[in-house]
Design a protein that fits this description.
By secondary structure, the chain is α/β, with parallel strands linked by helices. The protein folds into three domains: about 200 residues, 3-Layer(aba) Sandwich (Rossmann fold), CATH 3.40.50; about 90 residues, N-(1-d-carboxylethyl)-l-norvaline Dehydrogenase, domain 2 (Orthogonal Bundle); about 160 residues, Rossmann fold (3-Layer(aba) Sandwich). About 45% of the residues lie in helices and about 15% in strands. The strands form three sheets. A six-stranded parallel beta sheet has the order 3-2-1-4-5-6. A six-stranded parallel beta sheet has the order 11-10-9-12-13-14. A two-stranded parallel sheet has the order 7-8. It starts with a strand and ends with a helix. The structure holds uridine-5'-diphosphate-glucuronic acid. The site of uridine-5'-diphosphate-glucuronic acid has 19 residues, from helix 9.
Length: about 450
């Protein structure tokens, strides 16, 4: 089949590369000139495990092409996948400008009497009712009446996008038009994944509800972690014990400094804005966002209590991306942490294994120094705060670091370091909700002879 994918972001490019790999002829529309130039060399403008070779191979074999001409690409296609961004606006609602631009471009395609049915597959995360509105919009116009609209939300995670696509728990197909559903099922059939057929609005809601539920699991475990701190329980043990209940499951119960990224925060706020429009209070979802906001700021606030004043204090930040395996810093907890630390006058040196992430952060926080590696970032620091669980942080030479820092303090925002190893090198260490290495214990030791020696 001839397929057009509009938008070469994570969702669009992964979808395009996977579908091309299934043997279809895929034309990707990207209107960002710099991105397009990279793609036209057969290269990948985003960092995603396995994607560069899949793009390169399909590009070389002529199944994957790139253009900025949506009209030409869509006109020849039997299915157009819409995967443009819908970023949050100031009021929390998604900015639909790019989506509407695609809608208008599809409507303006010349009428062809022999065009047959054509699929408009909405992969972008859009407000509930968007698919139905698109359907009615197309129906109003004789030239666009051949388009059949399907809501087909995406559930891939950045960093494991290809794995998630090939191993999808489910493919949601939202349409009440059977022939359209069958055509899309035919495209996905080689993946052999379970399909759930629903109406368009339910498909759109599934996406928001699934992301919000996962975010709720994280805020829940983070709230319990804070309680563990107070009552002397261990969040690792608690999460394991909870997760063994098949009704709860282990996934998304890793306590830490909270979630970030381009999806959870955006989708939570979009759902809250939908609630407002529907004049319905959504207290649970409101709480999920509020708990996360506090969690993002937990460590800088703790540090400021510990030291009394952060003016001029040298702080080292390890990890800027919102999670490992990506170069994305959108809504990363690191941004909230940086705003808080710099706002309190701390001198921050940051390091992330992804150079692009460092560069993006530097643009937003020009006063922050960027280091080339973990050791350089930690040099002369008075506190190290770990924000992203990149694997390389688990293999550092703590004795070497001990000689470089001014005050040996490590706050582990992802509970990913071995506290006994870090403390054996002479550091004071605390994670989040850890029984042995709680923030409360660290605080209690402040001023004590032990801590005085450790931090001097
Ligand atoms: C999320 C969903 O997991 C995908 O299913 C969805 O398709 C995607 O959003 C989207 O809407 O496009 P993603 O944002 O890429 O995927 O990353 P996740 O792995 O879900 O992590 C999100 C955030 O939660 C990260 O900051 C991560 O550190 C944090 N997290 C995750 C925790 O703090 N604890 C956990 O146990 C799990």
């Amino acid at each position: 089949m001839r397929i057009c994918v509009v938008g070469a972001g994570y969702v669009g490019l992964v979808t395009a590369a996977v579908i091309a790999g299934l043997g279809h002829q895929v034309s990707v529309v990207e209107n960002h000139p710099a991105k397009l130039a990279v793609l036209r060399r057969g290269e990948t403008p985003i960092y995603e495990e396995g994607l560069p070779s899949l793009v390169k191979d399909n590009f070389r074999d002529g199944r994957l092409t790139f253009t900025d001409d949506i009209g030409a690409a869509a006109e020849k296609a039997e299915a157009v996948f819409i995967a443009v961004g819908t970023p949050s606006q100031a009021d929390g609602s998604p900015d639909m400008a790019s989506f509407y631009a695609v809608r208008d471009a599809l409507c303006q395609l010349p009428y062809r009497s022999n065009a047959g049915r054509r699929l408009a597959v909405v992969k972008s995360t859009v407000p509930i009712g968007t698919g139905d509105a698109l359907h009615h919009f197309f129906q109003k116009n004789a030239a666009s009446r051949s388009w059949q609209v399907i809501s087909n939300p995406e559930f891939l995670r950045q960093g494991t996008a290809l794995y998630d696509t090939y191993n999808a728990d489910r493919i949601i197909i939202g349409t009440e038009e059977e022939d359209a559903a069958h055509l899309l099922m035919k495209i996905y059939a080689p993946l052999g994944r379970p399909v759930l057929l629903v109406d368009r609005r339910s498909a759109e809601m599934i996406k928001y509800a699934a992301n919000t539920f996962l975010a709720a699991k994280i805020s829940f475990i983070n709230e319990i972690a804070c309680l563990c701190e107070q009552v002397g329980a261990d969040i690792g043990a608690v999460a394991r014990g909870m997760g063994m209940d098949a009704r709860i499951g282990h996934a998304f119960l890793r306590a830490g400094i909270g979630f970030g990224g381009s999806c959870f925060p955006k989708d939570l706020h979009a759902l809250l804005s939908t609630g407002q429009e529907a004049q319905l209070q959504l207290p649970m979802i409101t709480a999920v966002a509020a708990v996360n906001h506090n969690q993002n700021l937990l460590l800088p606030r703790f540090l400021s209590e510990l030291y009394g004043d952060l003016q001029g204090v040298r702080v080292c930040l390890w990890g800027l991306t919102y999670k490992p395996g990506t170069d994305d810093t959108r809504d990363a907890p690191a941004l909230a942490v940086l705003a808080e630390l710099t706002g309190r006058g701390a001198q921050v040196t940051a390091y992330d294994p992804q150079v692009k992430a460092c560069w993006l952060v530097k643009q937003q926080f020009p006063a922050v120094a960027i280091a080339h590696d973990s050791y350089e970032a930690a040099a002369r620091s008075e506190a190290i705060i770990l924000l992203t669980e990149w694997p390389e942080f688990a293999h550092l030479n703590w004795n070497r670091l001990r000689h470089q820092v001014k005050r040996p303090l490590v706050l582990d925002g992802r509970n990913c370091l071995d506290g006994s190893v870090v403390e054996a090198a002479g550091f004071s260490y605390a994670g989040i909700g850890q029984k042995r290495y709680s923030l409360k214990r660290l605080q209690a030791r402040t001023g004590s002879a032990e801590m005085g020696v450790a931090l001097s």
